[in-house]
């Protein structure tokens, strides 16, 4: 198949729409079920590149959850703790494979943003991962293959219309890429930068120690940023992205957005949140929405008399601002990646409030000294990669 005709482009009024190979060769994908749209395929191809690179960098199965051409979450297949299993809604799933664990992490980092995601897997989709995906609201999946039972499970989603794509894992794209904007063709070399430990060798702070676990998290952060709309910042911990800020015009706004998502990821592990007394008939998506409001300053939207009864069997205690700050102060050893240099130390101040200890960024600001000084104040280890990772 050299060409695939789409229903429409980014929006219903944008017709005609198709994907095709200019060189006359076959597309590197096989559509096994459903009919992907324009944005679905953008998510699929960006997500596939991300997980393929994560697998190469770490040696672990990888997964990502994409929405609107940026990842909502990305992770590798490390085992889940009991608390993580609970906050990701997989504590009833029994033993998870490494690939299933990777997707549970990728989906669970920011469940609000991952609602209706497009999934990318680095490995053949197994039954455990398919069973996990079966319960989530998702638009589709791309993977290098599917176990027969896993494929049948996924084909049953969305009344048989769930989009399932198989990609040729050996496909190598052309070294030069093009796109048209306003009738003008842009051309550039593909971003073939390999992200590995060598990128983190130039540590410019007083603290020079970046342990192997942090290097894995920094690699996850930087590979995630490589496929995230810029400006972008990524917080990572324990083998997964825990907060991604994408497409912000200001670096500090990006750092704040990603930091607030990392904070929410950790606040979900607070005992008050873990033990919210939900009614049995409250679905997973509604629980996610309710938790998000409960943890916010608008908590009375779900705790007011006459309202809480809709969600809970008894009225929960408020999670106070002081309790949230005390809990967040226990978050440590977080890694942070940035796709371009930090122009001011205020980004480091904000990162510190979300437990950041390790940072990778290109460097090159006229205020690098101020940024380094702020890192030294908090005992952080920061490396200069000397590489920018803008993606548009």
Descriptive report:
The protein is an alpha/beta fold and 392 residues long. The protein has three domains: 170 residues, AICAR transformylase, duplication domain (Cytidine Deaminase, domain 2), CATH 3.40.140.20; 136 residues, AICAR transformylase, duplication domain (Cytidine Deaminase, domain 2), CATH 3.40.140.20; 48 residues, no CATH class. The strands form four sheets. Strands 3-8-7-6-4-5 form a six-stranded mixed beta sheet. A five-stranded mixed beta sheet has the order 12-11-13-14-15, sandwiched between helices. A two-stranded antiparallel ribbon has the order 1-2. The mean pLDDT is 96.
List keywords for this structure.
34% helix; globular; 392 residues; six-stranded mixed β-sheet; Cytidine Deaminase, domain 2; five-stranded mixed β-sheet
- Report strand %: 15-25%
Largest sheet: 6 strands, mixed
CATH class of the largest domain: Alpha Beta
Output the CATH topology of the largest domain.
Cytidine Deaminase, domain 2
Query: What's the mean pLDDT score?
Result: 96
| Spatial strand arrangement across the major sheet | 3-8-7-6-4-5
Cα-to-Cα separation, first versus last residue: 28 Å
* Helicity level: 25-40%
User: What is the CATH homology-level superfamily of the largest domain?
Assistant: AICAR transformylase, duplication domain
**Rg over C-alpha atoms, rounded to the nearest angstrom:** 21 Å
